[in-house]
Amino acid sequence: MEYRLIPLAATGFLLAGISGDAHAADDATIPQGRETFVTYCAPCHGPEGAGLLAPNLTDAEVLHGESLAEIIKVIGEGVPARSMPPWGGVMDDVTIEATAHYVMSIMDDNLPSGMVATPDTTVTPFPFGSAEEPYILRTFMPTMGVGDEVFPHHGNGMATPKYNAKGGTFDIETMQDPIDGVPGAIAVNFGENLSYCFDTTECRILYTWQGGFMDMTDYWGAGQGGQRKKFGYVPTVLGNLLWRTQGPAEFAGKPRFRGYRKVDGAPQYFYEIGDKQITLLITPSDEPGVAHCFYTVTDANGQTRSFSRFLHQNIEEDAS
To answer: Most CB within 10 Å of its CB: which of 17, 193, 206, 313?
Structure first.
């Protein structure tokens, strides 16, 4: 069988032509896989897999090889050379396998690419929301001076051989340094008064800012998109940094992000830290630039407590 390798920018996935038999999957796992795909993969690949920031996955091809095991490996371990984060720290093995089955099930659907701009597109590299309709973006984010002690569950990136997109090979004599940024972050904008960055690996809010939201030009391209900057995955934060987390996390244990739901347009996060199940809803307070955080914490005995906090400015000057 002859394979044609095609790189997927921003994900590190490779595509290879396969026979229809490889699409066979356990039907019971596909709905679970789709749910996970919509939560974690859709921000880049689109809700139907037809591409958004990352390429179309519905072509008649399969990710990074022909076997389910290879797809599972790519999802779980990521591809550092292409800045695709590993999802093994977020999903368990069953969830990863279900997601791989779902991805295989949409191959050969040949949906129109979601990355194609139309004359009446509203795409802009300067997204913006409002208090009534918050803008939620799953993306890479800059660290903005957050200390290393905040990231104990993140891996340390290392230089990797340069990837040759045309040949589908790696040049072991040319090394590329890792990109400095937070993978798998969620940035939310409520308009000029408040934006924040939440890290789904550590399951904690990293920083807040006021003013603009983000400049996505390097990642999305200028204007209606296209001609993006090579390796420009980390956007530029616009505005003034107000609050930044520091020190170890409040609760001990390994964090595991479970997803979020929208409450009046704002994401309410669900995650676990150790034996505690936690929800967090972040909204603007009555004071401009101050985030109001609503927590519920349920311990191993089923006891739940609720509390809230205000994140007042703790930075004297803009650290960007």
So the answer is: 206
DSSP 192: T
Q: How far apart are CA 249 and CA 303, in angstroms?
A: 21
Rounded to two decimals, the pTM is: 0.62
- pLDDT (0 to 100) of residue 267: 96
Residues in CB range of 122: below 8 A, 6 or more apart: none
Q: Please state, in angstroms and as integers, the Cα–Cα distance from residue 107 to each residue in 35, 110, 219, 293, following that order.
A: 17, 7, 26, 41
* In the chain, % of residues over pLDDT 70: 79
Residues contacting residue 120 through CB under 8 Å, at least 6 positions apart? none
CA-wise closest residue to 152 among 248, 251, 84: 248
Q: Domains plus CATH for the chain?
A: 6-106 (1.10.760.10), 135-311 (no CATH)
Burial class (CB in 10 A: 0-12, 13-18, 19+), 236: middle
Give 129's pLDDT tier (boundaries 50, 70, 90): very high
User: Going edge to edge, which strands form the sheet with 266-273?
Assistant: 255-263, 266-273, 276-284, 291-298, 304-311
Are the C-beta atoms of 77 and 91 separated by less than 8 Å?
no
> Can you tell me the mean pLDDT for 285-310?
96
SS3 218: helix
In angstroms, the Cα distances linking 96 to 200, 252, 293 are: 17, 25, 31
- pLDDT (tens digit per residue) in 143-170: 999 999 999 999 888 888 888 777 788 8
Query: Residue 88 in 3-state DSSP?
Result: coil
- The type of residue at 76 is G
Sign of CA dihedral 33, 34, 35, 41: positive
Question: What DSSP line would sit under 22-51, residue for residue?
Answer: GG---TTTHHHHHHHIIIIIHHHH-TTSS-
Distance CA 123, CA 224 (A): 5
Strands (E), 218-290: 236-237, 240-244, 255-263, 266-273, 276-284
pLDDT in tens, 44-61: 777 787 776 666 777 765
